[in-house]
Amino acid sequence: MTFTAAEHDAMRRALALAATPGVPHGPNPRVGCVLLDATGNEVAEGFHRGAGTPHAEVDALATAGDDARGATAVVTLEPCNHTGRTGPCAEALVAAGVRRVVFAQADDNPAAQGGAATLAAAGVDVEGGLLVDEARVLNRAWTFAVEHGRPFVTWKFATTLDGRSAATDGTSRWVSSRAARLDTHRLRGECDVVLVGTGTVAVDDPQLTVRDEVDEPLPHQPLRVVMGERDLPADRRVFDDVAETEHLRSRDPRAVLEQLYARDRQHVFLEGGPTLAAAFLAADLVDEVVAYVAPMLLGAGRPAVGDLGVETIGDALHLRVTDVHVLPATGQDGAGGEDTNVRLTLTRRGRDR
Ligand code: AOF
Ligand code: ZN
């Protein structure tokens, strides 16, 4: 692979453009594009602002106008080859007279792939792979979903130091600190589905919306999904009109993920109770864990996770810690705050070390 220093710098810029704050994390990938002239100077830049809006390349081409002729397009994702919500970018680049295309990540989306071949067939010089790791991380959930044919699953739970998520009388409201609750809302906002079981809705009645510091709902709300067969009272808070909600009448994690993927959902934030968490873990369908551990002991009460069928220590599920930090106390936390946030991943070989 031979990339110039100018192409390298342009790809860094394109990655930053793709990550522009406010651009939704799904269902489309976040994509940036920079157009360079023959001397390596920037002609125009563009980025994708979410499903239904122009793709990054088309956005940059619109700014460049005639200056696109003979240019090099530096894009974080292989240009698409399809007419979906918008037209094929590969053809738009050819029509604009772009001479060379440098991209980071290949597009494995079956609907859109093949842009590099189309460009090459039209005589455009094409190279991929520049800063590909950064591009994959930028669209972590989208990349995972396209490669695995199902949404990426983040299991989030709040627990006391002794692994309890509620006291024996069922009260759970102040297990996590204010900082932990705000952090949860931020993470929810990056997902396109918040998933719980019917039990959680019946017992805890959570609202499951994304709210800001003053408890106002944000404009972009993930779909709220309740899974399970039992009927639910219509007065539950998940059925309010702040966000959309769907009740999927299935207890099977795999079937539910399949249905969500078919509806273009790529990142599930699993916030169910111990039974649902155990079902997803047992089916090997948890990809990331986010735990908020409160400096609190209950000694009894609802466990954070239900029975995993582990009877001997050798069968324990093993996870890898990717980040750990203590969240600040805010003064509004009854007992003192300072929850520890732990992030972990599970490999597909979760049970061996
Ligand atoms: C690009 N540039 O900026 C984006 C691309 O929903 P559609 O019809 O717009 O198509 C979305 C698919 O197109 C998406 O899943 C990915 O494969 C590609 N997205 N492609 O060349 C962009 N956003
Ligand atoms: Zn496109």
Please give the structural blueprint:
Elements (H helix, E strand, L loop, with lengths): L4 H14 L13 E5 L5 E6 L8 H9 L7 E6 L11 H7 L4 E6 L9 H7 L3 E3 L4 H7 L1 H9 L3 E9 L3 E3 L11 H12 L3 E5 H6 L19 E5 L17 E4 L4 H10 L4 E4 L3 H9 L5 E7 L7 E2 L16 E7 L13 E6 L8
Parallel strand pairs: 3-4, 4-5, 6-11, 6-12, 8-9, 8-11, 9-10
Antiparallel strand pairs: 1-2, 1-3, 7-13, 12-15, 14-15
The structure holds ligand AOF and zinc ion.
The site of zinc ion has 4 residues, from loops.
Count of distinct strands: 15
Q: Please state roughly what percent of the residues sit in beta strands, choosing from under 5%, 5-15%, 15-25%, 25-35%, 35-45% or over 45%.
A: 15-25%
CATH class of the largest domain: Alpha Beta
What structural class is derived from the secondary structure elements? Answer: alpha/beta
Summarize the structure.
With 353 residues, this protein is an alpha/beta fold.
Write a structural description.
Helix content is 25%, strand content 22%. It has 353 residues and is an alpha/beta fold. The chain folds into two domains: 5-138, Cytidine Deaminase, domain 2; 146-348, Dihydrofolate Reductase, subunit A (3-Layer(aba) Sandwich), CATH 3.40.430. The protein has an eight-stranded mixed sheet with strand order 10-9-8-11-6-12-15-14, sandwiched between helices. The protein has a five-stranded mixed sheet with strand order 2-1-3-4-5, with helices on both faces. A two-stranded antiparallel ribbon has the order 7-13. The longest helix has 14 residues, at 5-18. The radius of gyration is 23 Å and the shape is elongated. Bound molecules: ligand AOF and zinc ion. Residues 55, 79-80, 89 line the site of zinc ion.
